[in-house]
Design goal:
This protein folds into four domains: 185 residues, Serine Threonine Protein Phosphatase 5, Tetratricopeptide repeat, CATH 1.25.40; 77 residues, SH3 type barrels (Roll); 93 residues, Phosphatidylinositol 3-kinase Catalytic Subunit, Chain A, domain 1 (Ubiquitin-like (UB roll), Roll); 53 residues, SH3 type barrels (Roll), CATH 2.30.30. It is built from 15 helices and 16 strands. A hairpin with a 4-residue loop joins strand 4 and strand 5.
Length: 494
């Protein structure tokens, strides 16, 4: 399904929600092929509204898999677990939602197309309720005390009432997300779906040229006795702001701040960033376009005609690295990602690991503890001896070679959650077969999947995305970065 078809069907679905036709809206959302994180979130909300809890959980899993920084998706999946009375997992998701808030009092999702504000105090409020269901009254009281640090005047009343209930060891009502409030597509893109011709097609009524067949519109030209020796530079082009560039490759945007262009368009570069993205203006609209999709253009009529007559580019356009489509990133295939979204093979299990950052690995159900530890230590680039695994966040004893893995796999045949700690001093140094890079320039990450670093930092190469982008690990973080920002470190220095 093309980007325009997805956008059109997405807009039709939210229109159905506006007229309260939720069944038709859900069918339209489910018919979208390769939905993005926002569409998966919308599906989960509608399934949760219909009390299809298993389907809602699967949809929120897919949304988080495509955008692991979407705090509101963690919040909604936590509410799904709460309704399924799986309170341990509900607490875990509320903790992840709070972590995604990054210490902020709230996140306003209006700029992303969702008319909703997620408050940190409400996340802590629901976390305390789930802890109360588990009988952990002291933890619930601490969660509410922390909620008071993030409170606003509008939310103070519900926090105080919840605290009174906790002190009497009584349950209280959860704060719920309005399930009919959904992510909407960018209104500027929707407005461009249907082009309208308000002027119609021009027709020649009278012309000084015999048998003139011209149709269209052209500006009035001054009448002179002799043609000038060189074409005059159009005044309108000289008056535009920025440096003129011609587009060489089609670019389809993925976010609201990017701009769609096709080969032959003339754009004006306002600013070029160090991350190879350029802020441009085209047809009165501003947005971001990869700079390697553009070519400088001399602002003269003769050069324009030369560019218009030149052959189209024969080589493949430089590809932008794909956005992170999931948590499973180590030696996985397309089939593995499809299995992660609910089509798991009978003998394959996804293990979600809670660490300083969250990630997931896949391995065969029934594997030994040694195989599990080796898989996780390889992902973290540490020694297997330094890895400590637990089956829950508050487990007092860690797993080891004597752990009854048959019992573990019998309970968690498709999905296993583990909590991981490592000994920092036993971190493994790069092996001989690994490539170590050094940063030539600082790079500030602009997207969740990017890897930021400072000049001089060492980066262990994980994979090559394409000729322009690499994936690596540095300072405990993993992500992608421009290849032009680094160079390979000599073996002696490694």
């Amino acid at each position: 399904m093309s980007f325009l078809d997805t956008l059109r069907q997405w807009d039709d679905a939210v229109t159905c929600v506006d007229r309260n036709d939720l069944t038709e809206a859900l069918q339209l959302f489910l018919a979208i092929q390769e939905p993005n994180s926002k569409i998966c979130f919308n599906i989960g909300c509608l399934q949760l509204l219909n009390q299809n809890l298993d389907a809602a959980e699967k949809a929120f899993d897919c949304s988080i898999c495509k955008d692991e920084h979407l705090a509101v998706a963690f919040f909604q999946r936590g509410m799904t677990f709460y309704q399924k009375k799986r309170y341990d997992e509900s607490v875990g998701d509320f903790q992840l939602a709070l972590k995604a808030l990054r210490g902020n009092q709230l996140i306003d999702y209006k700029v992303l197309g969702l008319r909703y504000k997620l408050y940190a105090c409400e996340v802590l409020h629901n976390m305390a309720l789930a802890e109360a269901h588990l009988g952990q009254w002291e933890k619930a009281q601490k969660s509410l005390s922390k909620a008071l640090e993030y409170k606003t005047d509008a939310k103070l009343n519900i926090i105080n009432k919840a605290m009174e209930s906790i002190l009497r060891q009584k349950l209280f009502k959860a704060v719920e997300f309005p399930s009919t409030v959904l992510f909407r597509p960018n209104k500027n893109y929707v407005a461009e779906l249907e082009k309208k011709d308000y002027l119609g097609k021009a027709k020649v009524v009278a012309s000084v040229v015999p048998q003139d067949q011209f149709s269209g519109f052209a500006p009035l030209q001054p009448q002179v006795e002799q043609e000038p020796s060189s074409p005059k530079e159009p005044e309108v082009l000289r008056a535009l702001e920025g440096d003129a560039h011609i587009v060489r490759y089609e670019f389809i945007p993925e976010t609201s701040d990017e701009l769609a262009v096709v080969p032959g368009n003339i754009v004006f570069v306002l600013q070029k960033g160090s991350d190879n993205w350029a802020s441009v203006i085209f047809n009165g609209r501003k947005g971001l376009v990869p700079y390697n999709y553009l070519e400088p253009l001399e602002m003269s009529l003769g050069t324009q005609q030369k560019n218009e007559l030149s052959e189209p580019p024969s080589r493949v356009p430089p590809t932008r690295p794909e956005r992170n489509q999931g948590l499973v990133r180590d030696d996985t295939t397309t089939e593995d990602l499809q299995q992660k979204e609910g089509q798991l093979a009978d003998n394959l299990c996804v293990v979600k690991v809670y660490y300083k950052f969250n990630f997931a690995v896949s391995l065969e159900s029934g594997s030994t503890y040694k195989t599990l530890v080796e898989k996780i230590s390889k992902k973290l680039n540490v020694s297997p001896m330094s890895v400590t695994l637990r089956l829950s966040s508050d487990a007092t004893s860690a797993m080891n070679d004597d752990t009854d893995m048959e019992s573990v796999w019998s309970v968690h045949s498709k999905r296993l959650k583990l909590w991981c700690n490592t000994k920092e001093e036993t971190a493994v140094k790069p092996r001989n077969n690994e490539t170590v890079l050094v940063a030539l320039h600082p790079y500030e990450s602009t997207n969740p999947e990017d890897l930021g670093f400072n000049q001089g930092d060492k980066i262990t190469l994980i994979s090559k995305i394409n000729q322009d982008w690499l994936e690596g690990h540095s300072n405990g973080n993993t992500g992608i970065f421009p290849a032009s920002f680094v160079e390979e470190l000599p073996v002696n220095d490694q």
